[in-house]
Amino acid sequence: MLSRKDIQQTARRIDEHINRTPILTSNTLNKMCGLELFFKCENFQKSGSFKYRGVSNAVLVLDQEERKKGMITHSSGNHGAALAAFASSMDLPVFVVVPASASQVKRDAIQRYDAEIIDCGNSLESREIAVRECLAKKDMVFIPPYDHIDIVAGQGTVGLEVINEIKDLDEFWLPVGGGGLASGNVLSVGNTVQVVGAEPELARDAYDSLRLGARQPQMEPKTCADGLRTALGSLNFDILRDYKLPIVLVGEDEILEAQSILMSCLKILVEPSAAVPFAAILKNGPKNVSSKKVALLISGGNLAI
Amino acid sequence: MLSRKDIQQTARRIDEHINRTPILTSNTLNKMCGLELFFKCENFQKSGSFKYRGVSNAVLVLDQEERKKGMITHSSGNHGAALAAFASSMDLPVFVVVPASASQVKRDAIQRYDAEIIDCGNSLESREIAVRECLAKKDMVFIPPYDHIDIVAGQGTVGLEVINEIKDLDEFWLPVGGGGLASGNVLSVGNTVQVVGAEPELARDAYDSLRLGARQPQMEPKTCADGLRTALGSLNFDILRDYKLPIVLVGEDEILEAQSILMSCLKILVEPSAAVPFAAILKNGPKNVSSKKVALLISGGNLAI
Description:
The structure is a homodimer of 305-residue chains.
Chain A: H1 4-14, E1 23-24, H2 27-33, E2 36-41, H3 51-60, H4 64-69, E3 71-74, H5 78-89, E4 94-99, H6 104-112, E5 116-120, H7 124-137, E6 141-142, H8 149-165, E7 171-175, H9 180-189, E8 194-200, H10 205-212, H11 234-243, E9 247-250, H12 252-266, H13 272-283, E10 293-298
Parallel strand pairs in A: 2-10, 3-4, 3-6, 4-5, 7-8, 7-10, 8-9
Antiparallel strand pairs in A: 1-2
């Protein structure tokens, strides 16, 4: 399994390709929560989300011959946009299988970087069939969205930046969808800070999987947090189970309320998925320990405006 | 008149009170405009706009006795919120005269910092009467919104940060309303970079004033850029006339289009006034000189979401 050292090496590999994203703070939000909060703004990452980290690592570990074949993935959003953006920066061809349910803004983000979009149905099966059909026609490299060691390593690099910049950090809160982000950061910084997950009540497969000790299927999630509708990956489940990741569940109204507060106080665009950890903090109620230092990952900013 | 040295001293005076705001870049926007663009994000300044700089300077130059009397100003928005936020951080009482036409989000921003709001009519006269009535009842210090040397000096500090961070910058584009921001930065960095103003067609008093060589009245401006409806100040007019500030006018649709592009590409909240310089850049059309380095001031991010 990946060690912190491996992920430090990943950080060096992708360093010149990614943005060093800012960490924002707000006295108003600190007072509201009774905590010292630090918002790591991956909405300012290239392509608008942390997904760019994993994608750039997964492509950079390939040799030149493989890269030239081109890349393919399936994605309803940020992973597809990230792969399209990175491949375009390297002048590599890229195909993204996009389900009909993908939001227009995310479809636009994928198209902006000259990816070829292949439409498919909404089920995971329909996506996978479309990918297989493409691969049968043309030899390309499949870049999986989250359940892969190179993706996990890339996502884990964000935690290294967080603990380097914030001394004596107590907790690092992250949204949990497919689990690539959470498991990467458990592996990179989970020994130094307490990593905590947050998940929509309406897409609670990770919460249930960890509670029951066995991976549970995702039940057609209807949450507004479109980035977190994916099922927990199998590799990621093992990592999060071993860490005993605590997960806080939040409702839809809580997510939208948190999103609105973050946007008006921090002056940043925050997609619903990215507001889920703050929703969880708000749900826990104000603390009286303002000395406690808590970082939150703002995972992305791709939303219609 | 203020020299760069004076404004450097101002920067040291306010340094510990303000945020060092980030400068964002975007490959997508660079390609769109054929320029190397740098967005100085004063929407991340305390209270959500650059106005915090001028206000903190205007209060910090006062002695303790004066400060304790409390502060008063009139403002439909960001200046009032900035004064309320700064006074609240220093535990000083503050009163803000707010015209009926002020947007709810800006009224909320003023109220958030415990300022006492005094309602008045929409005309400048009605605002000034309300201030005089308050001053007749209670001895306080009036902190003017833009036409004052301490305010101008504070606003000019942002340009110093911009030229320190961006080597070989060619131009610095700013929105022009009352002219405090533009004149402060003409004085602080106008000798090093070309300062350029941008103004809504529907609030073009600065453009007309500079073209005709005499200050023109502001004609009940209806622009969506609510921060730029104020009339050009008399002190500021003199400074901008001496510099021969070029000003580009933009229409309402151009402002809204620019605001939308900035928000979706930079992932930040941008109020309409803050999008005016980018609207002017877009209006000028794409350049073929991508080596030209242009900074734009994002003046504020207080808008309803």
